[in-house]
Write a structure and sequence with these properties.
- The complex is a heterodimer of chains A (about 525) and B (about 300).
- Chain A is an alpha+beta fold and about 525 residues long.
- Chain A contains 15 helices and 18 strands.
- In chain A, helix 8 packs antiparallel against helix 10 and helix 14 packs antiparallel against helix 15.
- Chain B has about 300 residues and is an all-alpha fold.
- Chain B is built from 14 helices and no strands.
- In chain B, helix 4 packs antiparallel against helix 5 and helix 5 crosses helix 7.
- Classes of the chains: A alpha+beta (about 525), B mainly alpha (about 300).
- The interface between A and B is large, with 72 and 73 residues.
């Protein structure tokens, strides 16, 4: 017994020592630095721009790297690593002039060859890049000299400049990659050409970026150090903001949104983004295969205004098109019934439902699958009751873990209606319309329309932007009439931004470069 | 003795192997894969990525590859944290989980035993009732309620302590997670101590000691505490195990990059190698701990050795 008491005492001593040791490891930044604390709602899977996939990784990569073209805070295209460019009359050849003062974070000069190297690495199967086909319309990339890069396109791609702001197209430092191989995207090793460089990374917790003194526009960069705090729980992020530990949040909790709006209205930034929330139909199996009328009936019976007002309630807009409003040089086509009142829609929905052979005696047997999430569950419940009230059938709700849902959606065996979403990769209608082309991997409903494919193909051949736009709008009209999916609402970006953070701009891509921000001195 | 130890080590190998095989089959049986996303990849891009991570091979081949890596001490790259290896993530996460867990157990022991003993000595008084109601409350309120309330009160309203882990400096960031994790343990240990202390205090040898004129303090210290600690000691086993595996909720709420968080995220992301690595790490740890305990037994009790 005495032995065990001694044992406990020693254990306690050990605990205390461990505690002291734990307390000793602190890392304080020098007080003279301007530090910006940002929340990020998922760990970037990689800071190798070719291995990255998530929006969160792209957010960090846009701070450390820079493409030929960039965006202003409010989302207008602006010169990036290239100071200017010329476009040939046939829109097929772009000549970029790289800034002579553009440098890497190790001081090396940035040259055209580095862009060529990066694109070669991007498309190399051995790299296994998620965005390997991102530049599929580019047929040739040539370094004319150190500062001149020529991009030749296979077909006119009016959104090329927008593509070139994406981290997948950023230059890479060949020497450093050769030297460090797979392990080059590490703090202290990663060499980048943006306003910041990676100086610390605690997986699952914190990424620290420090000013890149070699950046060509360093003198206009105000923030010295950017800390991205990985906070996957909305409520945790919110408390940290309230506790004064964050300057910018990545989102705002749904549950107490009204309260946040009331308390922190002046710090709340809500803006439309290129992101659609939709329900897909499995078009390869009954009951929806070859039944556009039934698909339309279900779509019409959903009261989208009610959903965005009562269920999501963060300023989302009801979706009556596939392409969100706010896309450059495009006017989304609306669903045929967009102008009707909900009562009129319900009437018509009932007629279509009956014509499809369903009714009180023979109600539709249907399963709706959605992934785990509070909002997803609430929306599914609301739609379940709308379908019950308007059409009189009881949809079976099936909640699945995200990866399970993705696997089921991809297999198209058991799914009937399923929740999904799509975020635009660049500011062009093509990023939304292309995914419903019959051969596109992201075409999860399995929509296949020759007419739609042909219209998009015609659009891609146009040099005249106005004509291209008309073809695309026509394609959207054709597709919407087939009802391959139910557009439900368009997301909004939601951030809390401290009043002393200056330079913030709302934009449809929800990009917020740290280099555009500054912190006003306390008064 | 050496022979016994050797036999036990050899005996642990099949157990570990079984754990590995089962874990391997289970993670691969779960629907979906590590690179699935709403952003479905073009077929040849997906094929490239699968090939790069050997996910295109048959399961037995993947297992053989994994085992050969494991034998060389290589747990492989994480599929989700693509710039990090599994060993790195475990190496970073485990010390944190351990530190916080061990501090929480220490705190729980100190407060639990003290308050439990005090309650036992003043049985039936106001003090006893207050301590026991607090203990009951501590056991009943789940961590995911306690944690946000503590954060709201001490970090958001009073701003005494940091609300989260990342970027916070010094010892202050340990306070809230450790308290949160310790609270239910304090309560449990207090109840255990009280019950067993009351039991011990009613026994004959205590009466004898009292009769000899021993004061309460010395009585508790010298005679009562040791026998009263037996149930607490046996509770410590599972408590430490729970603490070692990391409290996922505490790590989640405070954003602590501990092993528990990696484990749950790994499972949700189908990060096969990360999940397997953590399972193997824990299995090895638990087997090793059991082995050490058994060896200690055999040192103390020769009968075990001879068996």
């Amino acid at each position: 017994m005495l032995r065990s008491m001694k044992c406990i005492r020693n254990l306690l001593l050990l605990f205390v020592l461990l505690g002291i040791n734990a307390c000793g490891s602190s890392d304080d930044a020098s007080p003279s630095l301007t530090v910006l604390n940002r929340g990020i709602n998922a760990e970037p899977e990689s800071l190798d721009a070719h291995k990255a996939k998530s929006l969160q990784a792209a957010d960090v990569l846009r701070d450390v790297g820079e493409g030929l073209v960039s965006f202003t805070a409010s989302g207008e295209l602006t010169a990036g690593a290239a100071k200017s460019w010329e476009v040939s009359d046939d829109l097929l050849t772009y000549t970029f002039h790289i800034r002579p003062d553009a440098k890497w974070s190790n001081g090396d000069k940035l040259t055209a060859e580095h862009f060529v190297f990066a694109v070669k690495r991007l498309v190399d199967p051995a790299t296994a890049a998620f965005y390997a086909q991102f530049l599929e319309d580019v047929s040739e990339l040539r370094a004319i000299d150190d500062h001149t890069l020529q991009i030749v396109l296979a077909r006119p791609t009016p959104y090329l400049l927008s593509l070139l702001t994406h981290p997948a197209t950023f230059p890479m430092h060949p020497g450093e990659i050769e030297k460090h191989g797979e392990a080059f995207a590490r703090p202290g090793i990663l060499v980048t050409n943006g306003a910041y460089r990676l100086t610390g990374w605690i997986p699952g917790s914190l990424l620290t970026l420090s000013r890149n003194d070699h950046y060509w526009n360093n003198r206009n960069t105000a923030i010295d150090e950017v800390r991205y705090h990985v906070l996957s729980q909305e409520t945790t992020e919110y408390s940290r903001y309230r506790a004064g530990e964050l300057d910018i949040t990545s989102t705002v909790p749904t549950d107490n949104f009204a309260q946040v709006k009331k308390d922190l209205g002046d710090q709340l930034r809500v803006a439309p983004v290129l992101n659609i929330y939709y329900y897909g139909y499995n078009l390869t199996k009954p009951p929806f295969k070859d039944h556009p009328a039934l698909r339309q009936a279900l779509s019409m019976a959903i009261d989208r205004e009610l959903l965005v007002e009562k269920v999501t309630g963060r300023g989302e807009t009801p979706a009556y098109s596939w392409v969100p409003p706010g896309v450059d040089n495009y006017e989304p086509t609306l669903l045929s019934y967009a102008e009707l009142t909900q009562e009129e829609r319900n009437q018509l929905a009932r007629t279509l439902y009956a014509e499809a052979g369903y009714g009180a005696e023979n109600p539709l047997q249907l399963e709706l699958r959605y992934n785990t999430g509070d909002t997803h569950r609430k929306i599914a419940l609301a739609i379940q009751s709308m379908w019950r009230d308007v059409l009189g059938f009881e949809v079976v709700l099936i909640n699945e873990e995200f990866q399970v849902l993705l696997a089921n959606v991809r297999d198209r065996e058991v799914t009937q209606v399923f929740r999904s979403s799509w975020t635009g990769d660049y500011n062009d209608a093509h990023t939304f319309l292309s995914i419903l082309q019959s051969q596109n991997a992201a075409n999860v409903p399995g929509y296949a329309s020759d007419e739609y494919d042909a219209l998009l193909k015609r659009a891609a051949e146009q040099i005249d932007l106005q004509r291209r736009r008309l073809y695309m709008e026509e394609a959207e009209r054709v597709m919407l009439a087939d009802h391959p999916a139910i557009p439900i609402y368009f997301y909004v970006s939601k951030h809390l931004v401290k009043p002393n953070v200056a330079g913030w701009g709302d934009n449809v891509l929800d990009y917020h470069y740290s280099q555009h921000l500054s912190i006003k001195a306390a008064e | 003795m050496l022979r016994y130890a050797l036999l036990r080590v050899l005996g642990a190998i099949p157990t570990l192997l079984l754990v590995i095989v089962l874990a391997f089959l289970m993670v691969h049986a779960a629907p979906g894969g590590p690179f699935d996303d709403e952003r479905v990849l073009p077929a040849d891009v997906a094929a490239n990525i699968e090939a790069a991570y050997h996910l295109d091979e048959a399961l037995p081949a993947q297992f053989a590859r994994y085992m050969s890596g494991l034998l060389r001490g290589d747990l492989g790259p994480s599929y989700r944290y693509r710039d990090h290896t599994v060993s790195e993530l475990i190496g970073a996460g485990f010390p944190l989980s351990l530190q916080i867990g061990v501090l929480a157990v220490a705190l729980a022991l100190m407060l639990g035993i003290t308050s439990g003993t005090a309650a036992a000595l003043r049985q039936g008084t106001m003090l006893d009732r207050v301590v026991m109601s607090l203990a009951m409350t501590g056991i009943s309120i789940p961590v995911f309620v306690v944690a946000p309330v503590l954060v709201l009160l001490l970090a958001v309203k009073l701003q005494w302590l940091p609300a989260g882990w990342s970027g916070a400096t010094g010892a202050a960031k340990f306070v809230l997670p450790v308290i949160t994790l310790a609270l239910p343990q304090i309560a449990y240990i207090a109840r255990l101590t009280r019950a067993s202390m009351i039991d011990v205090l009613g026994q004959d040898f205590i009466r004898t000691a009292r009769a000899q004129g021993l004061g309460t303090g010395a009585l508790i210290r010298v005679h009562a505490l040791k026998p009263a600690m037996l149930p607490v000691l046996s509770y410590l086993g599972p408590a430490i195990a729970a603490v070692l595996t990391g409290s996922v909720v505490v790590e989640e709420v405070f954003g602590i990059p501990g092993l528990g968080q990696f484990f749950v995220r790994g499972a949700l992301n189908r990060d096969y190698t990360l999940v397997l690595g953590i399972v193997i790490f824990y299995a090895t740890l638990i087997i090793a701990l059991n082995l050490i305990v058994d060896l200690l037994y055999s040192v103390l009790d020769p009968r075990v050795r001879r068996r």
